[in-house]
TrEMBL record:
Pfam annotation, one family: YjdM
Organism: Denitrificimonas caeni
InterPro entries registered for this protein in UniProt: YjdM, YjdM_C, YjdM_N
UniProt cross-references to PANTHER family, sorted A to Z: PROTEIN YJDM, PROTEIN YJDM-RELATED
Domain Protein YjdM N-terminal: 3-32
Domain of life: Bacteria
Name of the molecule in the record: Zinc ribbon domain-containing protein YjdM
Domain Protein YjdM C-terminal: 47-113
Record family assignment: Belongs to the YjdM family.
Amino acid sequence: MSEFPPCPSCNEEITYPDRENYVCATCGHEWPMSAPEVSEESTEKVVRDAHGTPLSDGDTVVLIKDLKVKGSSTVIKMGTRVTNIRIVDGDHDLDCRVDGQKIMLKSEFMKKA
């Protein structure tokens, strides 16, 4: 096999050096020779509250701002306590229940209780 690393884009082992980059002969992807190894731990997304405290599944949070519920005339008031949150991917990164309604909220409007 090749003594050069496989392509990070397509995982093919047909790569070659070109000045300070490696090049994939299959897909044409180029990456620097001095690129640090990416581990699975560093790619994990950490969701943080408004004060920078990391959040995890099952935490209890408190709203720091009144929030209008889109598509409704309902307002979730500041200080509302939300228990048993769930972290999800996407723009709205918290899945929770508020007053019996399943709602997705952004972590930037929460603080950990």
